[in-house]
Amino acid sequence: MIISPSLLACDFLNIESELNAFEGFEDLWFHLDIMDSHFVPNLTFGHPIVKLISKKTKIPLDAHFMVSNPEFFIETFKDFNIHNFTFHIEATKNSLELIKKAKKYYPSVGVSIKPKTPLEDISTEVLANIDLLLIMSVEPGFGGQAFIEESYERIEYFNKLKTQYPNLTIQVDGGVSNINADKLRKAGADNLVAGSYIFKEGPTTYREKVESLRR
């Protein structure tokens, strides 16, 4: 079980100390929400901040691109030591081409699906070529939203397909906490993204919060 603290919720005025607070944690990624204020109604950190983060930590970086032109970012982020590159299936008409291109630079490539997007929009060809599927359990664009209960069924749907795609990781992002983590794991989630839940009480609680999502 990978836990991915979402840095969108951290204290950006003390970003280096926030990153250092997780050093020594096992099975952990840092989740980066890259938003362009076009695909989603919010604008977050871009190239300079991600470049800085990549120099300050050895923890794998998990970049989630909520952008209208993910193909642009494949090239511009390739030197920032990104471990996983995830783009939205709704943002492109040729997802297979993007996956192939991204695999040249990133160890792991994923696609994300919004809560209201039909599950069938993730084709068998896409599932056969990605490493990670990110199921959004809130509408992308803002942190701190309430978990959408229908997400469990969506996770279970893709979990049943794992017999055909055994290397596929199912990641869930949105409203994740200790309250629903156990049910998410049982539904088939392998990777949980959490922002507000992990960061809201400060660094002394980070290890406790991360481990509570595994139990």
Structure characterization notes:
This protein has 215 residues and is of the alpha/beta class. It has 9 helices and 8 strands. The chain has helices at residues 15-20, 47-56, 70-76, 95-102, 124-129, 151-160, 181-187, 196-199, 206-212, and strands spanning 2-5, 30-35, 61-66, 82-88, 108-113, 132-136, 169-173, 191-194. The chain has an 8-stranded parallel sheet. It is globular. The model has no long low-confidence stretch (mean pLDDT 95).
Give the averaged pLDDT, no decimals.
95
Q: Structural class of the secondary structure composition?
A: alpha/beta
Strand order of the largest sheet: 1-8-7-6-5-4-3-2
The radius of gyration computed from the alpha-carbon positions, rounded to a whole number of angstroms, is 16 Å
Strand segment tally: 8
